[in-house]
Amino acid sequence: MTWARLLLPIAIVVTSAACVETIAESRVRGSLVDAGLSAANADCMAKRMVDRLTIAQLRKLQKLRGEKRSLGDYVSAVRRVGDAEALAVTASSAALCGTGLAR
Fold first, then answer.
1. Nearest-angstrom CA–CA distance, 70 and 5
2. Rounded to 5, what percent of the chain is helix, strand, coil?
3. How far, in Å, CA of 67 to CA of 35, rounded?
4. 79 in helix, strand or coil?
5. pLDDT digits over 24-78, tens only?
6. How many CB atoms lie within 10 A of CB 35?
7. 46: number of CA atoms within 13 Å, CB side?
8. What are the CA-CA distances from residue 102 to residues 19, 28, 45, 46, 93 (Å)?
9. Which pLDDT score, from 0 to 100, does residue 47 have?
C-alpha cells in the first residue's frame, strides 16, 4: 500500500472534523447571541467553549435564551444549569473575552 493511499483516509477524517467544529462553533455563537450576549463576546466565547465542552453540555447551554444581558448575568444563568464543568468553562471564557485577553 502506498503512502498516498494510507494518508488519504486520515486527511478525510481531519477535514471532516474541522468542518464539524466550524458548524458547532457557528451554532454555539448563534445560541450565545440568542441568549443575549453581544456578537463580539459570543464569537470569542464560542471558540473556547467548542474546544472544551461536550456536545451534550453545549446543548444544555443552547436552551438559555433571553433578552440582552451582561456576561455576569449569562454566567449566573449557566450556574443554574447545574453543570460544574460548563460553568467553569463559561466563566473563564467570559472573563478572558470580557477583558480582551482572548479574542
1. 51
2. 80, 0, 20
3. 7
4. helix
5. 899 999 999 998 999 999 999 999 999 999 989 998 998 888 888 899 999 999 9
6. 21
7. 24
8. 23, 17, 9, 11, 8
9. 92
